[in-house]
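Input set for joint prediction.
Command: fold jointly, output tokens.
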Amino acid sequence: MTYVFDLGWLAQYYPVFLKGVAITIELTLVGGVIGIGFGIFCAWVRALGPTWMRPPVAVYVELIRNTPFMVQLFFIFFGLPALGFRMGELQAANLAMIINLGAYSCEIVRAGIEATPKGQFEAGAALALKPLQVFRLIVIRPALQRIWPALSSQLVIVMLGSAVVSQIAAEDVTFAANFIQSRTFRAFEAYFVSTAIYLALSICLRKGLDYLGFFLFPSARTESR
Amino acid sequence: MKRRSLFSLALALAAGLSFSLSAAPGARADGLETVMSSGTLRVAVPQDFPPFGSVGSDMAPQGYDIDMAKLIAEKLGVKVDIVPVTSANRIPYLQTNKVDLVISSLGKNPERDAVIDFSDPYAPFYNGVFAPADLEISAVEDLSGKTVGVTRGSIEDLELTKIAPEDATLKRYEDNNGTISAFLSGQVDAVATGNVVAAAIIEKNPPKRPEPKFLIKNSPCYVGMNENEPELMAKVNEIIAEAKSDGSLNAISEKWLGIPLPAEL
Amino acid sequence: MTDFSTWDILRNLLLAARWTVVLSFVAFIGGGIVALLILFMRISRNRFARAFARYYVELFQGTPLLMQLFLAFFGIGLLGIDVPAWLAAGVALTLWTAAFLAEIWRGCVESIPRGQWEGAGSLALDYVQQMRLVILPQAMRVAVPPTAGFSVQVVKGTALTSIIGFVELTKAGTIVTNATFQPFTVYGLVALLYFAICFPLSKYSKYLERKMAAAYTHGR
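tokens >
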């Protein structure tokens, strides 16, 4: 038996991949924006927020960072309905990604906040700014700038990790590969193509985040370029 | 510099798309010869598909398909190696030569027939749509506006994809675990699966009972094997015929399905 | 039909967790060895070795581990080599781990000040001696905390092998869910078991980090 690498099925099935790419991008964008926003909030709580809020946030961060994404996803999709919280696979996937990225970006952003020189807080206070204003106007932007590369890498990791949402029937790129595999029995080719798609996506995402950083943090331009 | 390397990598991959790989794993001997010389029959069985294959509280596989695998191995006089697989990957297992036979409640259809061979049928199987009693569904048209869980790549998936109304949503899960969990946790309104599978679920008194709604297809189970293995095929068919006439297959049916083997099989 | 008590559920999950631990060890140790090779290529003076290492890291960090598992499992099989699930899982996880560890360690090597290289060079040490005697011993100390931290990612990465049919903790969870119809309990327990494995590793890595930071500031 000679194995022939055959991509002839692509002509018929490429729309499945296109749809998968759209879903993967949607999940990454929604998960990324809300997840990082939530992460910034949690980072604020852990670094500067009210003391009573810190332990619950710490527990959340540790729980998420020390369990696999897939188990979190299964728990939300299959487990939570037992408590009466039921949601569709896309909502469950979005929620799982937000919760997951929220915990990771919390730790990353917190490192950025804690690296802020003390003098900046003092200067803010001297200008009669309230603590939240100091955070919003003075601290957060340089903090994000400091940790932007780490945050970008984390977002790429989350995008690649989203491959498992196919397990709850969300129709992303991996679902497309599995779907085509079960119709054409061209397993290797289907996974090969989807791997190439993910590689292209992660290259684009990283490039896009570099540009975004370029626009968000004008002061960095002279330093690094 | 770094960016350019990323692009050239992407380009190299794109170029790779057009190659034609012809790795010949050597002319493969007939499966029967391989089995007899190794003294082991490797069989792909389900582990998430009661009563054909599931696990007991000791996690050991049990069910109709497992007994069938044991029966064939015994008649061949070799040891049996039970390999648990999912619905979606059982045919790749065969194609990549990880198993000699697939005994995994496998139904026959043209797509599968094009890539593997089938023995004579060894078990009855009817698949249909199942849903809680209060959901009114009596024909495929009634699925309109409903979500139905199926296992990706199963006969139910392939058939229902063809006949389901436009506005019915099919949710395709990786394996039967996913499909059944999705139904029981209320993620889908109905499931398309085998009659015996639904019966086995009901027997365990689940929170939601999958009652039969309508029949999709009468699709008995076959033993699957790689193409061009005439000797293995002949031997397996011989064993199935023998098991049908001496009553041992009937005993397996009684044990797991609770019904005698249907005469038309 | 068999009935599962909560103890049965936990017992089966614990038994399966063994394989999560074994697989993590294999991936971590195998990955460490491959990572060393990649690291040496990455910082070598040979252009092709450097390029290879860069592409390797780019490829494995730029694609989902799940796809790597699928390709290892079904792809290698098509070449006529029989790959059981545990082997495919071990190989894919090893290669994936290696890509990340190599990058982490490269960062550590590069964090060694240039003066150390120059000093070693002025002592007439050759490249291998510079690495072995001066750079690596220092880099290794810096590398311990992030390496311990990454082991948590390896443990969590093993969860994906359930999808290609390797019966470890997550797979046992899905199987047991279907035999018991108690997804909330089962996945809750699965998550707790992962936490029990990963949390001590995370804490240990944080502790090492703090210890090193303290040593660093006192040293000055």
